[in-house]
Design goal:
This protein is an alpha+beta fold. It contains 6 helices and 9 strands; from the N terminus they run E-H-E-E-H-H-H-E-E-H-E-E-E-E-H. Strands 4-5-9-6 form a 4-stranded antiparallel beta sheet. A hairpin with a 4-residue loop joins strand 4 and strand 5. The protein is globular, with a radius of gyration of 18 Å. The two termini are 20 Å apart.
Amino acid sequence: KTGHNSDVVGFAFGKNQAEKDLAYHCLNALGTMGFKGHIDRTPYGHRVVAAGAISRILGREFGKGAARKRIPGWVLQLPLAKLSPLFTSWMEGDGYLYRDGRYLRGGTVSDELAWAMGMVANRLGYAVSLNKQRPAKPGRIANNPHETLIKLPCWDVLVRIAPKREEKVFMSQEAEATFQCQRVRAIRSYPY
């Protein structure tokens, strides 16, 4: 994520050893691309922090701040083999298994990210439901009295991964173009 008024990007990872290994893998990947960074310990795990050009590139392409995250059009047009790891990684980070493992449920406060991940899941052949929840009531996060709850409405991206029928539903190019136009109109007209 990138901050609104900063030239810094952070990649958050959990506390366990596998997450710590991923943080070091991320740091090494940044180094391979010529960028410098470091790892901070947080109450929630590990955070890879980098500044400069990588922050500006990621902020320009993927948005800055939680509510402005997006998936650029060129990513949405990638082949399914490249979209699958993107979707899986997003769900592993911001989602969980739901209803006895028949669904994946991801969450975001970004309108654009919710619609984009719904489109990605649909392109991968999954049935998708998008629902906007009410904003959280003001308060504190249970384990950290210094952080407040996000006060924006949260999107639920519900993906059926264990369909009752064998066939998967794929969106035609015409339907996908219509969906894309509706998505852009909906985001531009949304009062937030």
